[in-house]
Structures are given as C-alpha cells and as structure tokens.
Design a protein that fits this description.
The longest helix has 20 residues. A hairpin with a 2-residue loop joins strand 6 and strand 7. By secondary structure, the chain is an alpha/beta fold. It is globular. Strands 14-11-9-8-5-2-1-15 form an 8-stranded parallel β-sheet. It has a 3-stranded mixed β-sheet with strand order 10-12-13, with no helix packed on it. The chain has a two-stranded antiparallel sheet with strand order 3-4. The chain is built from 14 helices and 15 strands. 40% of the residues lie in helices and 14% in strands. The protein starts with a helix and ends in a 7-residue tail after the last helix.
Length: 370
C-alpha cells in the first residue's frame, strides 16, 4: 500500500482538507489583526442622543458590536433608522459586510431601555415569573419581535439569577429592581428558559446573566467595589438556571464582576479562568459566546487599568468585552494586540473567541459569504 507524501509530512493534512471551511473561517482568514480584535468589543451608543465622535471611534477600531444604552422613548421605527445607520458603517471583509451585533437591556420593569411606539411596556421579571411558562414564552416572542423590527439582534436578558426571599430587595443589583423571576431555582430556571425560547423563536439572540449569579450579594458591581458572594459554590442550586439555559442552547452568557469566595476567592468572576473555562465551559459545557458585564464604568473594576481589564477577561476565557465607555476601547485594543505578540496561548485564545463571535453572527444572519 502506498502512503502519500502529504500524509508522511502531516498526518492530518488529508482530513483537514476535507473539512469545508465555514463562512466564519473564510471571513476570519481575510481579516486584519485589527479587524479580528475589533470583533471582541462592544461599545455603547445612546439611542436618544447618538454621539458621532464615539461612533466614529468605534468604526476606526473595527468594533464589532454595539450596546444601546440609556433610555429611549423613540419607538421601533426611529430605533431602526439609527441601527441601519450604524450597520451601514460596519466593516466589509473580502467584499462581504460583517454586520454588527446590536444589543440592549430589554428585561422589563425598571430595566427596559427601549420604549415608545411599537414597543410593549414589559412587566418586571418578578411579575413574569408568576405567569405560566407558555404565557411567558409567547410574550417573550412578541417582545423579541419588536426588538427585531427595531434592528436589535441581541438582548442582554434573561436574568437567570436567583435572589433568595430572605435577601429580597436588600440584594442591590437584582432584588431591589425586581429583576429576578423568583426566589428559587425551581421557579427561575423554567421561566428563564421560556424567555430564552421566546427570544429564539423571534430570531433574537438571548443572554443568560450574570454568571455564576448575582442573587446572593448585597452590593451592586456597577456602583460598588469589592462585591463578594460568600455563598455560591460550583454545585449550588442557583447555578441550575444557567445549566438549564445552556442545555436549551443559549447563545450568550454574561459574566458577573463580583468575586465568588467559594469558587475562586482570588479573582473577580470576569477575570477568573476557574469560573469561565472551568465551571462554565468544562463543567456546564457552554460553547457559545461569553460576554462581560460592563468593564468600562463599573466601579467593581475601577482599580484595574482599562487595558488589563480587557486582557484579563479574554485570558480567563471571555469573548466579548462590553464597555459602556467607548473611549476606553483604544487603550483596551492596544493592550490586547500587545499581549497577542508576546503570548502565543493568548493569541490562540483570541482567535478562538473571534471565531465564536463570527459563528454567532453567521447564525444571526449578519455574516454571509454567498
């Protein structure tokens, strides 16, 4: 039997050739390093008062995702006009536009960014959690269809956090605003799953947050430094809603910026490979896109330089750095590129993250190689 020369030099040569390159692979190959790194960032745009300087800065740095932040009552039509303008400025690679992931916080109750004509007034998650799961699923599909009509393709919801009844509104980030579906994993998991299913049905990517849970803390990481969860372990029942959503195919998971002393006492979750690569990816089997909570203005990360925030999050296994302050993106991307030249492992991780983002975009119809 004759063995081909190629097989001797590289035993994997033949099978590798047989595996057809995906659209994401082809796009990745045609990108510059700056374009690749830009895919790992999400900067905010205020829909009620878009700042052209910030939008231009994000375009300069090839930022692949935007977050609509700050309340807008303009309605679906005006929002769609804004988003279409942003999409028109998205990068083209090898003659094909790489569309933007456009996200917002459309949970309901006190956390509903977009309202006005065409948008429902969404009740709080605590109210949603009192409905049947089939009712919630059908309502979530309606809300997601409204987002879709406004050009929004990614919702940073549902909140999968379990706030124990004993803590309730003393839980500053979630309970205080009725953002939880309920006080037990048995209530939260099916309702979070129903919200996810409704979003998926209407073609909007959903995001489970804030892994591994913000239900057992008192401080809000947006406004407080040193927030520590001393309760949650890797096997706590409060992890169940995340596990359930991941099993149901959730495309995105957002990581909390609190520290979990019983999981990794030394690092905030957003900077912890134990949390992201260990618990989320290996134990729970999550293969989708890992996005940070805000690493721009959040007080929880203020003591860490902007460049280090981005590098630490990506090193820990994260994929998309969310910063509500786009002016930090130059420092963040510079730090990431610098680390890529110094560290082959980090560089390989970055490339893997870019592929995850491009695959998510392809599924969302934002990337075509036709």
């Amino acid at each position: 039997m004759e063995i081909s020369q190629a097989a001797i030099i590289d035993p994997s040569a033949a099978p590798a050739k047989a595996a057809a390159q995906t659209c994401a692979d082809r796009t990745f190959s045609a990108m510059t390093v700056s374009q690749r790194v830009g895919q790992l960032f999400m900067g905010s745009v205020t829909p009620s008062a878009p700042d052209s300087k910030r939008i231009d800065l994000m375009r300069t740095y090839h930022v692949g995702s935007v977050f609509l932040a700050g309340r807008s009552k303009a309605g679906t039509t005006a929002t769609k006009t804004l988003v279409d303008g942003l999409q028109a400025k998205a990068d083209s690679v090898a003659g094909h536009r790489v569309g933007l992931l456009v996200s917002t916080d459309q949970e309901g109750g006190q956390v509903q960014v977009l309202s006005g004509p065409g948008f429902s007034t969404i009740p709080s998650a605590l109210t949603q959690g009192s409905w049947t799961t089939s009712q919630l699923r059908s309502q979530a599909a309606v809300w997601a269809a409204q987002l879709k009509s406004a050009g929004v393709n990614l919702n940073l919801a549902p909140v999968a956090d379990v706030v124990p009844a004993s803590l309730g509104t003393a839980n500053a980030p979630i309970g205080r605003y009725d953002r939880e579906f309920g006080h037990t994993a048995a209530t939260v998991a099916p309702h979070s799953d129903a919200f996810l299913a409704g979003s998926t049905q209407s073609g909007v990517l959903a995001t489970l947050k804030h892994f591994p849970g913000l239900g057992y803390v008192r401080g809000n990481t947006d406004t407080t430094a040193g927030v520590v969860d001393t309760v949650t372990t890797s096997t706590s029942s409060s992890i169940t809603p995340f596990k359930s959503g991941i099993d149901a195919g959730a495309p995105f998971v957002m990581i909390s910026s609190a520290t979990y002393s019983k999981i990794d006492a030394k690092n905030r979750a957003a900077f912890s490979s134990t949390v992201i690569q260990g618990l989320l990816r290996k134990t729970l089997g999550f293969k989708g896109v890992v996005i940070s909570d805000d690493l721009g203005n959040a007080v929880a990360v203020k003591s860490v330089s902007p460049g280090d925030r981005a590098v630490k999050f990506l090193s820990a296994g994260g994929d998309v750095v969310l910063t509500v302050e786009p002016n930090l993106i130059p420092a963040m991307t510079t730090a990431v590129k610098s680390r890529m030249t110094q560290n082959a492992t980090f560089s390989a991780q970055v490339n893997q993250s870019v592929h995850r983002v491009l695959n998510a975009k392809q599924k969302a119809g934002l990337l075509s190689c036709g």
